[in-house]
């Protein structure tokens, strides 16, 4: 099917998106600097130069604001996937859209990731963090369904979940290793998924598995 043109945002919509992103980034920055328990909604609003009432128009809590960075990161993924060329296989479209998104961000910074993971490990953020990842998976599944012309909802959901798992495994592997770059690992995992894990089912294991005791920890 022909690629769908990503919807054009109005000036008002762009400003709202920018305001939401600014509040989320301020929430993360303050939480990393002070500890989340020492940050108030008023502090976040002041950091951006808006009122607490404006903050409440976008988020119901400081925890939601911090975790929203997980969701916001995938806005570009949705737009990139819908804009992929007509006739391109679905898995290739998903892979290229994902690689494009993460290439734009560049290789993660280890010091920042370490601090962010420690922050996300706090009990008060766990619920919102899981909600954020569920939202990402839902949006990805809906976008895959659009790209595939309204394909089976369960299969689109399964594909989205598999893609999110590949991202998580690639990220944890990068975080736990000293010299393995993130993007090539992610691309390899997506290729394996697209072809039914032939390396694994063929009985060969060229690379050691990541430390599975860390796979349930938050990724950023």
Automatic annotation (TrEMBL):
Species, as recorded: Amycolatopsis iheyensis
DNA-binding region, residues: 40-59
GO molecular function: DNA-binding transcription factor activity; transcription cis-regulatory region binding
Chain positions covered by the region annotation Disordered: 197-220
Protein name: TetR/AcrR family transcriptional regulator
SUPFAM superfamilies: Homeodomain-like
HTH tetR-type domain: residues covered: 17-77
One Pfam family here: TetR_C_14
Top-level taxon of origin: Bacteria
InterPro entries referenced in this protein's UniProt entry, alphabetically: Homeodomain-like_sf, HTH-type_TetR-like_transc_reg, HTH_TetR, MftR_C
Sequence intervals crossing the membrane: none
Keyword terms: DNA-binding, Transcription, Transcription regulation
